[in-house]
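User: what does the whole thing look like in 3D?
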Amino acid sequence: MSAVSLALWTVRFLVVALVVAGTIGTILKDRYTTAQWFEFVLFGLTIGSLYAQVALGYTMVYGVLRLINFAHGDIMMCGAFAGYFVATPLENSGFLEVHPVLGMTAILAAGMVVSGVIAVLTERIAYRPFRRVQGFAPLICAFGVSFFLEQTFRGLFGSSVKSYPAPKWEGVEFHWAGLSVPGVDVLVIVLAVAFMAVLYLIVQKTRMGMAMRAVSEDGEAAALMGVDVGKVIVFTFALGGAMAGIAGVFYAFLFKQVYFYMGFTPGIKAFGGAVLGGIGSVPGAMLGGFFLGLVESVGPSLFLDGIGIKAPYELRDVIAYTLMILVLVFRPQGILGEHMAKKRA
Amino acid sequence: MALLELSDVQVFYDKIEALKGISLSVEAGRIATLVGANGAGKSTTLRAVSGLIHPRAGTIRYDGTTLAGRQPHEITAMGLVQVPEGRRIFGRLTVEENLAMGAFTRHDRRGIAEDRERLLQLFPRLRERLRQVAGTLSGGEQQMVATARALMARPSMLLMDEPSMGLAPMLVEQVFETIRTINADGVTILLVEQNALMALSIADHGYVLESGRIVLSGPGRDLLDDERVRHAYLG
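Assistant: Here's the predicted 3D structure for the full assembly of 580 residues, as structure tokens:
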């Protein structure tokens, strides 16, 4: 056994030991009530559903372009801003209170359209010239797009944190078997799942979706079949952008904050979700996003409380990033992905 | 009338000249073949015709119009379809979806359904595997998918790059039989092959390519009997 594999096995063993010890410790301590655990899980699913939506954009763009669109989190931010600019007057005029469905539809539509359009523009202006370029240049271009979007929004709308309107109906709670379920969480999860189901159907059942899958596998062969690869790429950016726009609106709705830098952390997390599920795989991105959300929400209390860490929740990002690193080291192809080496060069 | 005509086509990969001025023509309804050793420029020729690479000089005309500056998908839409080397089927798509991809440029639902039925009669094995993911098929079956996929475009002309590559001898016979059948249905064929014996024996016209140049051409039968060809390619 080589030194490297010995080291890797040690890391594996330590991680498992830590997780098991922490979990047992937490269970023995019995510090959290069932209601609290339920809260962790529900919040994990809520935030996970947003990661999943954003992860879809990463995975689909990676599929057709083999590009990590580092600016995708910022595309989400654009949608959050668009939603904010629609939500604020709607709330101030009282419309959002009286017509929650119509109001939310308008807000989501704004987020979807703006994010979708900006995603398409970034492709047209920034990524297209790099389409045939090998190496790191396209990735560095993506970093540039990310900074450009952030700083543009900062310049246009200031660097202050804007508070998102909180309509009264969002305080609704459902009660079920002694547990209270916040209405907002249900709304976010249900709508996110519904939108993802629609996206999945588009990818699986439509002509454009089929072309997208074909291009992901072999762009040149798809072109030889008569597929306009450029069009498919635009379609992919639009679809992923719209999805990120929805996620941005929900993210702002949950955390009540909108600012130019807000896309960064969820963007990285969603990227982690996409890698976790297997980058390039659409179901993988959904699965990975949910999984990351759950681990990040439940993990700190479950794994860390038991080993005596005082405020484990503060370490949720550490858990999320550790999970990402572990995946990259031990299963780089992700849960549903295949080995990169198997893919056509 | 020549359906496909290349005149003095030059292709460079960076500074390396892959095609040093190729001229050839394929008559409508015929089978032409391009034979030669590995690296002679056979695939490069087909890639240039399909618009995957752009010649530095020379013209390629198909059905009377120049292909200069056209994208691969536009060329396919003109009825000039390539079955690429190594088959390149979509392994994660089902056989059914692969066939649908072949008909991507068409919008006549009824015609597509008819062609699909006809091709499933030509390749009955594929009917059993319609819902199967194409990557799980055997090499011979994958070649069937690749050929059927290209024919779903209802092409006037087919460019076939090494269709017999990697197949067992019995399957190779079958592939060439299929090529004859397709041609008998009126599809013009330009066949690129390393298996010069088989290719020349079914071709109306053959071209021998050597390091980016056509060194010999003539009716397939004549080339088969040619001393130089026999010596170089047929052993």
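In plain terms: The interface with chain A takes residues 50, 52, 71-73, 76-77, 81-82, 84, 88-93, 97, 100-102, 104-105, 149, 153 of chain B (CB under 8 Å). Strands of chain B lie at 2-13, 16-27, 31-36, 57-62, 65-66, 80-83, 157-161, 188-193, 205-210, 213-219.
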